[in-house]
Every structure is written in C-alpha cells, then in structure tokens.
C-alpha cells in the first residue's frame, strides 16, 4: 500500500510540473518581450532613425569641365530598371512601425510618449521624402510579415492621402516631443522641429498642387502659414545676427548656432566619420 501511495504522489508531482510553463526567454538575445522596457531602450532604438536625415556630406565629380563620362549611360543602353534604382527601401519604415507597435512595453508614460513622438516625426519625414520622389506611394502604419501578401502588393495610396498622414504624424509628434533638444547642439528632434517640417511639407504640397492643377492646394498653404506663424510666435528661435558676417559664421562655427538652427547634424569626423563639404573646392586647371 505504501508503495502504491508513493507512486500516486510521484505521478501527481510529475503532472504538476508538466502543467507549468518553464520556458525562459534568452537573456542574451533582444526580443520584443525583454526589450522596450525603459527609457534607455526606447532611446537606443530610435537613435537609428536619425540616419534618415539628409547626408551631411556631398561628393562631386572632377572629371573635366565638360563633364563627359567615359561610358554610355544606362538610359541610352536600355539597361536601367526600377529594381536597380535607389530610394525604394522600406527598411527604416519597418523599424519605425515596429517600435510603435512595441513601445507600450515601457511603463514610463512620459518616456513612451516622447519617443513615440520621435518615431512619428521620422515616419512623417520618411513619407515626405517618398512623396517628393514618387508621388503616390503605399501607406503602411503597421509591421508587415510574409503572410500579409495583399498588403505587400497593394496599390499605391494617393499623394493627398499620404500627405494628410504626414501632416498628422508631424502634428502628433509636436504634441509629444519636448520643447528643447535633449542635446545642447539641437541634434535631437523637438516640438519645434516637428512644426517646422510640418510647415515645409504643407508648403511643398500646396505649391505642387497649385502649379500642377490639382485641387485643395489652398488647404495645404493655409496649414503651412498657420504652422509657420505658431513656430515664429512660440518657438523662441530667431535669425542669428551676431558679428560682422553672421551668415558665414552660421556654417563655420564649431557648434550650431542654436538661436537659429532648429535641427542640426553633428560634425564628428574623428569618431563617426560625419563631415561636410563646405571647404570643398575644385582646382582651376587648364585643359589641352
């Protein structure tokens, strides 16, 4: 009898342990379940979005004054294709939407709202660039997987719809972002950066629609004007006027003139290889 009781107790213990979920998430791997937990996680993830901004450096060819290339162009050869062109990448948008989908893991509401604002700013910026290049483009505000075939091949949304979403994202970002940059050189997006870009995007769309015979251009021009007025009246930014050559000093100073510069790209050649071409010049040479 004692043996039977021991077997029964042992069986119950085995059943009890089997009913527990002992699956542990790997501590050395980043997963949605163990990331996006605090302000630091949110900041680190959104840092990558700043690479969407225009490149700080520019390059130019110095072949000759007549700029004759050695080879035949792809258009003439007939080898140019859409697949070989740049500018159609959607990787950064996926990273942005992925963040917005999982940032709710963070219990710090203040941090969550701030970095959601950063993500919304850059989603708006991402699509503003896309519309300028392509016009109508598909709008995605969610993370897509391989099973989302219909969404992956859906038709383009109208530029009006996309630009309305762009302006909404900029405005939503403005309500969540801080009024001052978290970095002293104004290299982080703020409420005022969001409003400045919203005004620029609305002005672009309004003038594009006006001079291409499209409807509703007045709406966008009114948004541009009202947003710019809010920026001028409330932001505290003003034109830099110090010294005898203020315009030159704006671009030659070691750090951004934060009285005028709303959003800056940091010069950091030694560490991050971020430079510019302000001092670039072309030698005056004779040919022949």
TrEMBL record:
Transmembrane segments: none annotated. Pfam families: SusD-like_3 (PF14322). InterPro entries: SusD-like_N, TPR-like_helical_dom_sf. It comes from the Bacteria. Residues 97-201 form the SusD-like N-terminal domain. This is RagB/SusD family nutrient uptake outer membrane protein. It comes from Bacteroides ovatus.
